[in-house]
Amino acid sequence: MSTFYQNQRVKEGGGVSASLSLLTRRLSGATRLWFYDVGCASFMGAALLGLLMLIPIFLFEKFVVVPLIISMIQVSVSVAVAWQLNRLSATEWSCLVPEYRHNIYFQSVLIWGVSLLLGSGLCLYIDTQGALSQLAIATTLGLGFIYLCLIKPSTYYLSIVLYLSLVTIETVTSVIPPVLLLLLPVISLVLAWMIWQKVLVSGWHPDARTIYHNALEMGGVWLPSQNSYRYIAKLESSLHPLNFFMGPLLSMLIIAMPLFTIAVALIAYLFGLDVPVLFLLVQFSGVACVMVHWSRIQRWQAVEALYMLPGFNGKQGMIDAFNRAQCKLLLLLTLIMVVTAAAVSLVNPAITTAIWLHFVLSSIFGCGFILGAGSACKTTLQLSATMLIIIAHSAWVSSSLRLLTEESHVWPWLAGDLIFVVISMLTLWFGSKRLWKGDLV
Q1: Plot region of 34 (φ>0 → left; ψ -120 to 50 → alpha; else → beta)
Q2: What is the sign, positive or negative, of the torsion defined by CA atoms of 365, 367, 373, 376?
């Protein structure tokens, strides 16, 4: 490998211009590889969403949840790197394209390294006890996950377990001996070296190809056979054709989000932590809505396959069925917020009736805006603009919570929620008229 880079320097003639030329080649196609590939984009999108969520948190100086979000970003980037390395092992042609594998290796190291440096800088800035330790644990877990995926590609299916482990990362940090925490950077360096040695001799793997195709259909996660689960099958059926492009990942999110929220709320209650679990639930509900249209746009060729399925009365019938499924999803996410917020209020007295209603209404108009705007989008660039909706929505919810907690000026905020609900319903109606307009004959 070192000989390759030496030859490249000799070929370019050395100097700053040669280094810039080599850097440009190494970054060639990075946007398309990391943010357009469905499997990788799901996790890179989660990392970017985590960065966006940090904006209102830093504005209002609510640093308690920052270590968890930084750890999530590092884990998301690690899973994305594992996906790219698995993709190399799944595609036979990867060794035939000049410099393709070297570009992937360079971009993986660069993105992962930038994520680690950014996380470390933020942890030092907030100066919260245990922040760097949590990031160190997340880094070690991420590197261990990448290495296990290289050894056994089916480990990639356990990516959801890696995310769920973040729930206990703060507790683990408090019970791990300080000596072991000091050894984590050394363990991470050893894992990085082992990954590099494995990558140098890696080649095509039939199991990696199977996982690659499954992840394209399922969004990078694994679920048991739905034939054994009547209720999951009914949920899948009721959301068709909304989940046609996304696969069972949508059902998994719907089931996992409330369970995850309640579990974190219980842990926070037992250990006396202040974790804004309902705020996170609102954000993840919006992410689920974004992913619905992200997968639809990414898999635009599958629209014709959906159109050919029986059960639709022409093109308009398919559009009407998709819009009805969107309304069902919005209703389902609202019911999840209603029940989950009520359950969390049992262990968190700070969740008053006004805050409960605020979260419910915020969930309605946030998801409504995203689903409506997503329906009108035709390209990923247009859909990326919906991230601005998530940022604005996060700013609205976080800024209003402070006043709602103090029980002062409650009704103006709730009136604003109701106005946004009406506007979001108009957006959803407008988007339903723009969905697939001109895409099918």
Answers
A1: alpha
A2: negative
**Which two three-digit tokens encode residue 90?**
């799944």
Dihedral sign, CA of 234, 295, 110, 204? positive
- 221-277 confidence digits (pLDDT tens): 545 444 445 667 788 788 888 888 777 778 877 888 888 888 878 877 777 767 778
pTM for the model stands at 0.63
Alpha-carbon distance of 304 to 302, in angstroms, equals 5
Q: Give the Cα separation of 362 and 334 in Å (integer).
A: 9
Site of tokens 């080599």 = 22
The tokens for 181 are: 């925490």
Reduced to 3 states (helix: H, G, I; strand: E, B; else coil), residue 60 is: coil
Q: What whole-number distance in Å separates Cα of residue 357 and Cα of residue 341?
A: 9
- Helix (H), strand (E) at residue 110: helix 100-126
Tokens of 138: 């997340």
Q: Which of 346, 395, 344, 324 is nearest to 366 (CA)?
A: 395
Query: Distance between terminal CA atoms of the chain?
Result: 51
Note whether 362 and 397 are within 8 A (CB): yes
Reported confidence tier of residue 60, pLDDT bands at 50, 70, 90: low
Residues 6+ apart with CB under 8 A from 338: 360
CB–CB of 79/159 below 8 Å? yes
In order of 49, 162, 281, 388, 414, the CA distances from 383 in angstroms are 14, 28, 21, 10, 28
Minimal CA–CA distance to 249: which of 370, 322, 160?
Answer: 160
Which residues, including other chains, have CB under 8 Å from residue 371's CB and lie 6 or more apart? Answer: 289, 292, 293, 326, 329, 330, 428, 431
Angle at 238 between CA 285 and CA 290, to 5 degrees: 25
Share of the chain above pLDDT 90, in %: 18
Tokens read off for 126: 């907030």
| pLDDT range class, residue 4, cuts 50, 70, 90 | very low
Q: List C-alpha distances in Å: 132 to 63, 173, 183.
A: 13, 10, 13
In this structure, what token pair is assigned to residue 63?
């640093």
